[in-house]
Structures
1.
Amino acid sequence: MSVTLKDVAEAARVSISTASRALGGGGLASERTQQRLIRIARELGYRPNPIARGLKTGQSRLVGLLIHNLTNASFQVIAEVVQARLKALNYQMLLCLAGDDPQQEHDTLNTLADHRVDGLIVVPTGRNGAQLTALADKLPIVCLVRRDNDTDLETVLADDPQGAYIGTRYLIELGHQRIGLIVGRGDTTSGRERLSGYVRALREAGIPLDETLVHAGHFEPETGSASCRKLLDLAEPPSAIFVANHEATLGALRVTAERGLSIPDNLSLLCYEDMPWFAWHRPAISIVDNGARDLANLAVDRLLNRMDAKGQGADGVREYRVGARLIKRGSCKPYVSPIRPSISRSAAKA
Amino acid sequence: MSVTLKDVAEAARVSISTASRALGGGGLASERTQQRLIRIARELGYRPNPIARGLKTGQSRLVGLLIHNLTNASFQVIAEVVQARLKALNYQMLLCLAGDDPQQEHDTLNTLADHRVDGLIVVPTGRNGAQLTALADKLPIVCLVRRDNDTDLETVLADDPQGAYIGTRYLIELGHQRIGLIVGRGDTTSGRERLSGYVRALREAGIPLDETLVHAGHFEPETGSASCRKLLDLAEPPSAIFVANHEATLGALRVTAERGLSIPDNLSLLCYEDMPWFAWHRPAISIVDNGARDLANLAVDRLLNRMDAKGQGADGVREYRVGARLIKRGSCKPYVSPIRPSISRSAAKA
DNA sequence: TAGCGTTTTGCAATCGTTTCCAGTCTATTG
DNA sequence: CAATAGACTGGAAACGATTGCAAAACGCTA
């Protein structure tokens, strides 16, 4: 089929081992033969077979990235960054999508292990802790965005408590008192942490927590629409909604559009995690940016670090946080007390 | 390290070859030993090593997907579909992003070949035809979305001439005569074909082609903003714009927002290729849907077909087209002749 | 029970590398 | 000039599977 090391060795009239050493670098061959073999290899168009090499060395030059989907904007960014960084180092990315489903995650982890990936970045569901722990004995693993509580793995997280805090505080500073929160499930790191940030900001401002204003649900647009409807149907609806569940954003947006609510005049809207089109939307949507790009970069850094360290014992397992930033655009504005319909109508007539 | 076939064989007190045959299925071992070995393998937690297998068989159970990026919504869908379909068949997807750059594409193709992928789906830049042709001798390749004119590969394309045609005709039927077109570069299949569909619709309607209304450019938001500005600055600006360059959509949207144009009242806007948020945007954006999901599915079908056929000679290389559909939402409306500013002002005063 | 055909099994080669272990060659030193 | 260290090189054994070939075991029939 293709040119093998043997062909190169024969062409150069040396043994296979010499050829291997010359091309493998490391100065294990004399300068002269090395140059000669590199030349011959190039002439012949030799390309080492990573499978054969992998069999011998146990390395595949493959790195797994296991995420939930590619719909979530943060995951897109993460996938792009990871693949770009790895390619530069001559690794290939094995992208796996397991849709936040423990069973799929389990299977995928097995497959990844089978393929002898040299490293793994995973957004864990949190239900396969034991498997992850076992896997971590064999290869470097970095958890991203979510922590798996059953494991003790290096983890890169967004600073969700802080992000939700600064977002909520921003709304409070604008004068909002009744702030609706649409957030992720309580059994996820981000769900819990964002809720905690919201609660803390409220508490610090001396605003009592109103349970009816908080909706936690699945990471789906439907969550957003359902929650948004319930919030707006409240006897005393919120003047601002903080959609801290990224996937729910579309749903929330749909409902406000359906009801003809003008944002930010009738309702202030603050979302979490940027999407490219948020900036072009009318009004441009203000967000708490979780720093997906930096998260991915840091995860890659940590992974490479571990891969280089190459199993140097039970080294310090750390947790990293990437801070969130508030990006003010046009979807939030200072609170104005609502004018009652009757008054409003007469005012308009005046 | 892990459990190998040898371990299983020893535990079962048979030779390695027997173990291999028993586990490999195909009835090459007696029913009894087969059952026994399957049981023992399971008990031991044996998982075959795909690398070793790959070395012998030349198969990797890896399939490459080479696309430009993950920002483009169609590519997201394609990546999700391909990975889901492949996983179900126990293949892994090697996702590569080459950003429409011939050099990166070239390198990536090499790497993919090195890793002995069993098949490849590629959105070609069109500049590495020779390499693709050479590669096609060794493994099944399906081109997607773009054709590489220098090759003769199985290709799955969107029906862009038709898509652009129905889109343009829709606008014409709404009464628009001056229709701006923002389209992709002329050296891409989609760029040329969408332009041709636009031209045909115009011709059939007896509307002369006005070159100043057509802008072809790179697949970037900037193209959209620059082109949109030029169109709107025309002495006689278009009453509708057809953004047939997906990436340019955001740019066009930004400009219309900047200028405070109300869509569809001041301008009808029709875009190409759906994005999830188009439906939630205000107004919801009408589009020509290129059928990304079906494109991906068909590409996978064709690839699997070729992989099964396993080099059955120079079998019929076909080109497939997936038809486009018009999805009417709220961003286009019937043409009304513009009221001159002076008249408008006096009319308002009246 | 011998002879024959059919399963079923084991041996060993192979895939393309890497790497250990000796062996060869050169150069240096006493 | 002989001895010896050091640098290079070649042979061969891995890595973990698959697979052609031949031997063994089996079931039949005569």
2.
Amino acid sequence: MAKEITSTSEDFNKWYTDVIKKAELVDYSCVRGCVILRPYGFAIWENITGVVDKLLKKIGVENVSMPLLIPESLLRQEKDHIEGFNVEAAWVTCGGGKELSERLCVRPTSEVLFCSHFSQIIESWRDLPKLYNQWCSVVRWEKTSRPFLRSVEFHWQEGHTIHSEHEEAREFTITILNLYADFFRETLCIPFILGKKTEKEKFAGAKETYTVECMMKDGKALQSATSHFFGSKFAEVFEINFRDKNNAEKLVSQTSWGLSTRVIAAIIMVHGDDDGLVLPPKIAPIQIVIIPIFPKREEILKKSNEVFENLKNLFRIKFDASDHTPGWKFAEYEVKGVPIRIEIGPKDVLNDECVLVRRDTREKKKCFIKDLKKNLDTMFEDINKNLYLKALKNMESRIFKANSWNEMVDLLGYGGFIKTLWCGAPVCEEKVKNELGLSSRCMPLKNKITEGVCPVCGKEAITEIFWGKSY
RNA sequence: CGAGGCGUAGCUCAGUUUGGCCAGAGCGCUUGGUUUGGGACCAAGAUGCCGCAGGUUCGAAUCCUGUCGCCUCGACCA
């Protein structure tokens, strides 16, 4: 066996790093915490950005590009914001062989750059809203890093919008959250809990932070996309004001939201199995691979090529005529998570057939070549459905309700989310964190609270909340 | 940043305790041939400043000091 992958049951963390290496998604670079996205890994990201970019443009978001560097004085203007990012900031202190008079921060996020720009270009209510986004990479000096999950440099999109009214901004925060949610469900086949972060867990400088909270196969949580409502918190500091319809001066209301290469970690850990990646068809760099069983036999090569030519404009498809054995290729494309493979061998050529094999279920199916297109379409649909439902089942089976502190303690060993009521007090959240090792994941948007008490302090509860271990 | 583990061939590792026939194995890679419906086989090859820098010693992969990097678990974060 050439490519050994640690099994998920033996060591989930090792399995994860094995998979990303064996599937050739990343390689480690010579800079600590910075990884190289290899062609196959970057292709996944390109497919993700392609879909998300389209969704954003559909609702009127425009792409821009902000500088990589932020002057220290600018970054320091909003107090909560710099506090949140201070420890993980990377600084440029030298340029052109000279010490700089002011340090420049390599952007950890671009709120302040957008703010300072907005303050320049906004004058009238007619200029609003501005719905901006940029695709870029940012740097956060993380102490420990793991590819896709947490790295010093990572790629993402960061959206920044300003609106004339708080209500409109808040609504937009939720619009984006729902856009992310649709993307996770429809494109990535990943289930999630939509919710609001607690004060403790929210973004540095935000008034409210909303999250797409996903559960990995091992029961741990991954905050996979976020959307923040700022109100006028930044607008005040950066003086982003405008004249409203009554000629009164007014501050804008603001949002920001982001989705990073971390979603690739989610894809790996939600769908993957002991044989490697299982990629959702819509973002798989190779959706179909054709494997000829005897690539040197002319009739097989010819038939395979014919199939390839017929499908190549409909799907992202690869024809592998290399001289590896079929068994080697089967395993190789399974590691890489290719959703469907087409086998064409001597028996098939005789009947003008081929064999379709699904990555997610391993199901094999004979198919007449003339019916391929139709069969592939339905198979892709099935795969999409199956991936989502399987992941949903796993998540739901790992959400445990607890009514008391003792029940919470009893549920600790199972791995997953614990759902309780909560009084809203930070001390209770702190206690759960310190004594149970669980952080609050989110307060669900679909809050079904009627009445009850907080299991930590016994006082009246104001919300439902999910607890869990997170990546 | 705290606790632990690890750096030897492209990869996985043996060798380190007890310094000296100790530069090794398997996989991969190259070439040729036979194979091919679940990671094929045979033959012939190529590949190393033993992470890096100092030190101890007649002699260091092996002992000492420093340093860099990686992994796991905490803390912190998307």
